[in-house]
Structures are given as structure tokens and as C-alpha cells.
Amino acid sequence: MTRAAAARGVPFSASPVLALKLPVWRSRLVLFALFAAFVALVCRALYLQGISTDFLQKQGESRYARTIELPATRGKITDRNGQVLASSMPVKAVWAIPEDVLNAPPEKLRQLAALLGMDERDLRKKLDSDRSFVYLKRQVEQDVADKIVKLGIEGIQTRKEYKRYYPEGEVMAHIVGFTNVEDAGQEGMELAHQKQLAGVTGSRRVIKDRLGRIVEDIESVREPHDGKDLTLSIDRQIQYIAFSQLKEAVDKHKAKAGGIVVLDAKTGEVLALANLPTYNPNDRSHLNGAQLRNRVLTDTFEPGSTMKPLVISLALENKVVTPETVIQTAPGRLTIGKATIGDAHAHGPLTVAQIIEKSSNVGTTKIALQMQPQQMWEMFTAVGFGQQPKVGFPGAVAGRVRPYKSWRPIEQATMSYGHGISVSLIQMARAYTIFANGGELLPVTFQKVTEPPQGQRIFSPKTARQMLDMMETVVSPEGTAPKAQVPGYRVGGKTGTAHKVVGRQYANKYVASFVGLAPISDPRIIVAVMIDEPSNGQHYGGDVAAPVFANVTANALRALNVAPDSSVTDIIIPADSVKESM
Amino acid sequence: MSGRIATVFSLGLVLCALSVVNAQYQARRLFIELERAQAAARQLDVEWAQLQLEQSTLDKHARIEANARRDLAMEPVTPANTQYLTLGAK
Fold first, then answer.
1. Interface mutation target, options A66, A216, A280, chain B, most CBs of B under 10 Å
2. Structural domain that includes position A542
3. Residue A477, domain CATH
4. What is the ipTM of this complex?
5. What pLDDT does A1 receive?
6. A266 and A169, same structural domain?
7. Whose CA is closest to A314, among A427, A444, A415?
């Protein structure tokens, strides 16, 4: 218009439009409106910047900042030579949002069911729920999980978790134990050392870019702490030897159960510990209580004659007898009060050494009754009977030793040959460290020790040596356990055969046991074997448990590179060995 | 005069601003690299554990014994068929 006006030659200032006389309120109104708009903007800016700033910053952060969980791995359990006994591997938990998944094509669901190793019907049943979150399967292996993700079904998600693998399986089950799906220890060492093994998960807050890459840490990182590795005292090779020999014996004698423990005689370390029946810790779908029981530690039994070396040693120590003292055991029967105890065979006069060799109850009783009940009780307590062993193992039991004040003479008599007193196999094995260490009792441990432990003196070195020599005669052809002989090595030990108490009565069920040391010249290992209810004709410790001892000892000594201390490579086993007394 | 000073300073300011941008970019790039390296380390850790586990499974005594007996027809050692050598003996 101005141009048009200019074209027509009218000067701008003279434009007729300007000459219009408008009312003043109109310009004021425009000015006011503009000002009001400006005030509104200022108010809004103040509100955003000042008052709701926290809220907005949080909103912004949530668009690019993420908290990431940093998982920690559970520590490994290894044997004394660093071989893995338990190790955690990352796996996936597969979970679903049921509503989304049920919309997927049936063909895909079928493939999913196949990959999960489930029946399609079961899968559908699982998905048929109102919840918005359902675990389909936990601890799915990585490659299977990858395939599931590749199916591309909507609503299927995976989450990282860990699965524990036990390469030794049933052989090591009772020592190592196992963890649950949450990676918490449930049994054995996994439970006992849960604190040390479990890791502490960490977390970090980060900024992620458009492509999901982490570009910056916002806060300081809470570092995850992986669980510490645990080195056990177990020797994998000896453990296998012990387990396989025990299994063979339990099968051969149709026994209900069995246990074996191998100790290092110098350090008190547990080199092997096995129980039957056992289970596979990698597949625990059909577990029962009998399989889980760690009999060596959690079952007590009346040990029978394996107690005799301790009682006779006490008599030697207190100079009640010497190894050459002759005790009359004829007629193989002894009446104390109303009860009569007896030997399996009547032997006549025997020296103390022969009482051990032939395992005479009458002889042992006659020696024991020359001592005070208090002396015997103090010795039992000193070697750890009736007290929970401090081995750092869950569920280890104390056994039972009644206070001496309530002992009647018949009870003192039966206790001298291991009845009326109950111990666990590991307590018995530990007690024999006395004979291997010149009279000193060693603490038992499941963890590798670096320096020799402090022993506790029970008997003098002389007594220990004398008993060691007596125990060697037990495996001679004249003793109760010629089947315990080991070619190339001098060995010794003591058989035990005890009636089992069923209800309140002694039943015709037996526990056959053998505790022995080898080599006698300088003991390196202690092997204790217990076979529960052998029922295939034989039930004596010398027939059932002694061969297990012999086989385990022969192989273990070879595995430990112990030089032979005997030139005898052929052993003589008489057709009919001496039956021990019960 | 003052105009020239202003020009110099604003030029400096722009350069500083650009270098901040560049530094931030470099920082993020290096950070991503670090992340990647750490992820690789974790992966290698997992693989190592897996290999250890595999080794343990493969050299299980039960398996070795079965193989030695079945495939190689080997027998257990006994002192009767062992020649012992003593160090230092003539």
C-alpha cells in the first residue's frame, strides 16, 4: 500500500492511513496484551527453573541414565591341588508376560516348549495365569537361551543368573554339598562357607547414548565383590579311590549304607570322605533324606571293638598293665552283676598284645575294671567323644558319653569294648591320630593347612608306639583282620563289629567297621570304614570293612608317593580267620 | 581498539568451546572402548571358568579309569609289579 502510495507520488508522512484518528484505548489494549503474555512467560520460566526443577531433572535423567546391576560370581571350590570341585557358570532364567506370549503363533509355542524341554500342555498351563510375570524355566543354559531369544516371541524375556556345576558329581557330593537356584549354600561346604563363597553384587549409574552404549558414569561405581575361592583339604584322587572301594563293598555285602573317611595322619586334614547312598548334585530332582545324610559326620553308632586300643592304651599309660602282662580270658565268659559278656571264641590266657590281636572282650573288660570310671571318662572326653567336633561342617554331631558318676560296673565293662557309648566315624578316625603322632591328638579340618597344627597330648610317645605295634598284629594271619594286609606296606588297625540298637534292644543287625593306619613305620594316613547292616552272609569288621581299608590304603599310599616299608609283596590270608567278639 | 579486543576474545571463546566439545567426545569414545575391554575381560573370565570345569569333567578319575581299563587294557599297579628306586642308593 505504501509502495502503491509512493508510486502514486504521495509522500509516506502524508499517507492518508496515518491520518486516521483511532481511539487511544486500542493501542493501550495491545500493549497490555503483549505485556501480559510476557509476564505469563516469565512466570512459567520461573516455575520450571525454580520450583519444579527437581522433578524435571529426574525426568530427564530417567530418559538417558540407567542403573546397571553388576553381578558377582560365587567363589569356586577346589581340592588341595586346585582342581575344580564346584564352579558357577552364567545361565539364563527365562520368564514371560503370559498375555503377550499366548498371542504368539502355536507353531512358535511348540518350538519354545521343545527348547525348554517341557510338554506344550504344561507350558500353556503355566502361561494361563493372571499374573504379569511367570518364570518359565530357570537355569537355562546359555546356548538354549540364545535359541529361545532367536524365536522372537513377544513377551519372552531372559535374565542373567548363575548355575553351579559339580564336575565330580556323586563322588564328592557329601563334602561339597550344593546350592539352591538363588545361589545360596544348602548343604556341606557350600553351606558352611556360604559367607566366604557368596559374592556381593555391585551397581553403577551410567548415561547411555542413542545406541545403548554406556558413555559415562554418573555416580561412583559400587564395585561387585566376587566370592572367594575355597581350597579344601580333599585330594580328588584319594576321594575317588575311597568312594569306589566303598561302593564296591556296599554292593558286595548288600549293605544299607556305608561311610569312609581318610585323614592325613600328620596334619589332621580330611583327604577323603564318602558316604553311601549318595546323590548327584547336578540333578537333584529325586532326592531323599537317606541320600543326603552325611553319615560320617551326622550319624553316631556304637563303635564296638575299635574302642579297645584307646582303653588298653589308657591302661598302659597308667601302668595298670604292660604289653606282656598275661590275662586269663578262659572260659571266654565273664559275669558282672546280672549280665554276662562273652568272646566269640574262648582263648585261654592271652597277653595284652594278644587281646588286641584277637579282640577279646573278656580280656579288655578285666583290664578296664582295674581302672576308675573317672579315668576312662576323662580319656573319652579328652579325645573328643561326646563333644561336637570342631570341623566347621554343618550338622556334625557330638555322640553320647554318659557322665561317669552314673556308670554301673557292667556299663564300664561294655564301654571298654565300645558298647553303651556312641561316636561318629570322624570322631573315631580323629582319635586314632593319637597313635600316628606319638600320643598327640590332632584337630580335624576340611581346609588345606599350611603349617602343622598344634596337637594335644593324650598318651606318652611310648604308649602310642606300643599300641601301634599291637595294632599291626591285628592284620597278621593270626589276627582278626588278615584281609586288611597291604602288599608292600606295614599297616595296622582295629576291627569293630557292633550289634545295632533297634528301639531299646540289640538286634541281629550289625555295623562292621575298621579303623587303621599306614604305614606303621611312620603313619601317613588314617582310614576309617563303616559298613551299616551288611546282609550277604558276612558281617564281621575283618571280613566286610577290612578289605576296603586294604584297597584304599594300597592305592592312596601309591597316590601319595609313600615309599614301601615292607618287602612283602605277597600276602597270606588264612581260610578261616579269628572271629572277633561283639 | 576495544572492538578488536572483543573479536580476539570471542574467537578464543569459540575455540575453547569447540575444544570442550572435542574433549567430551574423546572422553566418551575412550569410555566406550574401556567398557568393551572390560566386557571382553569378563567374557574371558567366564570362558576360563568354563574350561576349568571342562578339564575337571574330562580328567575325572572315574572316566580315566574306565578308559584305561576298557580301551587301553591297563591294570592297576601293585608293589609286586613295581621296581622301586631309591635316590642315592647304588
1. A216
2. 236-280+288-559
3. 3.40.710.10
4. 0.72
5. 47
6. no
7. A415
